Amino acid sequence: MNRHGKNNRITAIAVLMILLLSLLPAGCRDGADQVAGGDKVKYLIGVSQANLIEPWRILMNEEIKDEAVNHKDLRLIFTDAVQSSNKQIKDVEELLAQGIDLLIISPNDSAALTPIVAEAYKKIPVIVLDRAVEGYDYTLYIGPDNVLIGRDAGKLVAELLQKQGGNVIEIQGLSGSPPVRDRSEGFREVVGSTGHINILDTIIADWQRDKAEDKLAELIPRYPRIDVIFAQNDYMALGAYRATRKLGRKDVKVVGIDGFAGPTGGLKLVEEGILEGTFTCPTGGREAVQYAIAILNHERGIPKKIILRSNKMTRETIPEYLQAREGRQGNVSRTGGRIVVGFSQVGAESGWRIANSESIKQAAKDEGIELLFVEADQRQEKQIETIRSFIEQKVDVIAFAPVVATGWEGILKEAKAAGIPVILSDRAVEGVDPSLYTTFIGGDFVEEGRRAARWLAAKTKGWPTVNIVELEGTIGSAPAIDRKKGFDEISKDHPAFKVLYSASGDFTEVQGKEAMQAALAIYGGDIQVVYAHNDDMALGAIQAIEEFGLKPGRDILVVSIDATRAAFKAMLEGKLNCAVECTPLLGPQLMQAVKWHMAGRQLPIRIITSEEVFPSELAAQEYSSRRY
Ligand code: AHR
């Protein structure tokens, strides 16, 4: 159907729905709702909300509506599943029947909603908000890092209790939902590590204020000393506060999560001294609409996951937060006029890296951003020196791909002290406070390792032995650590998998070949599989196997990560069996993040790129369109 025909259809549906809805009494409208963005409707977006009992979800819908107003050719249809997964499944079916172009869904229950989300994704793009579904059958996920929020809450509770420690009660949301599990995990990890905080009891209050108040009213008399109540949302925290005050327990401190503005929001509760603190849990509503438009306009470089940043809210931090929010009209370039970005690159160790450098340089050019680009020959000291020189040159933004995961705290603190934001590109860092960097943009290396192992498990099904040589990346680098971790995680369930030999090839072809020669010298024909952490090392291993007189891809299966053109060529030649994608084309997303920062937007804490798996059977059809 052409767009004109579609517009007519949408207008007819819209008129019909408005008529129907206006005939229904308010209580029977079942949460269906429409927002008109303008006269000419180009896109119809369905928004399936889990419930509208939680104020946080009402805010999510409001943010979606507010952002939609900026896009005049957009119509939204809202549904409310009233906390029922069965109802939400029906809602999605009805939205699909109405011909929506894209679905935004915040699932009531992750497992129950997974099949219908996968079904919808076969037909249209799907953005999943807040609660993830299982697997990867969706276009984009946007949500918070609930483990991190739980940890931050734990740190605040530890600060409140100081060295003497104390007794805590935890109030959880709806039993079995992922944010409940994750927030609790993060919280318990931190308070448990103090050794002097005792979790007295845990109650489940389904995210509801009144349930929290009633259940606590019964529980409190049992405990003569309660120091802090941690509630997994502000609404339940308010219920907790009421219960304590009704029972005359004025000394009990309360901490929550959500931190939104407005008369009933957590910010006000903190300002009024009802809560000691809360943590913002962004809804992602605005971002969902912005990305929906980008997806519907077929823009390139849409990420797979966007993890939003949470902010700590106490009476001390609120003024600074509000000031930053008000002042986010835009950051002024320190270098006068043009935006200057300093980028410290790992080096030029692989085909992937060369494509990554090109992507960054090209994107800077396209966006009119001045780029200071320095390679570090895989040396951390050189990266630290380079970053320090960027600080001295007072660039607007520093970006870097950390060669190894640890040892960055000092230089990141120097950048923070100089007021220069830092973006992590491609590789993440470990053991630093996330407030020391603005965002991370890159792949999910653990998942890449899992994907390689899953492919291998399917390929070797029924084999009595699967003898593996693992060629690891640079020792201590995030991709080497995580790709091993992901592979090992899946391997555990496959007793035939046995890593005979494992060595680092430093992500280079030459060292990959040397490591494989060493493995062949010891294990020779017993080797059945090579798992290489990147294509370059796999290509080196292929040469070693051939020189040893065996046929790579047939006598020894080879699976690697990156999926560069060179890997595709090897697959077409029958020498490589599978390439797991890790995209180096990060430049456009990096420069977009720079621009968003300069425009005053708070960036997500992590932007995870979209990646696929290419078994050799798919190589021929993909090769010609391969961009790196
Ligand atoms: O950090 C990404 C990794 O670094 C790539 O997989 C590898 O080829 C590169 O050198």
From TrEMBL:
The keyword Transport appears for this protein: yes
Annotated keywords: Signal, Sugar transport, Transport
GO cellular component entries: cell envelope
UniProt-annotated location(s): Cell envelope
Gene Ontology terms, MF aspect: carbohydrate binding
Origin superkingdom: Bacteria
Pfam families assigned to the protein according to its UniProt record, in alphabetical order: Peripla_BP_4
Domain Periplasmic binding protein: 45-298, 342-593
Chief localization: other
InterPro entries from the UniProt entry: Peripla_BP_I (IPR028082), SBP_2_dom (IPR025997)
Entry's family note: Belongs to the bacterial solute-binding protein 2 family.
PANTHER family referenced in this protein's UniProt entry, alphabetically: D-ALLOSE-BINDING PERIPLASMIC PROTEIN-RELATED (PTHR46847)
Name by which UniProt lists this protein: Simple sugar transport system substrate-binding protein
UniProt organism field: Propionispora vibrioides
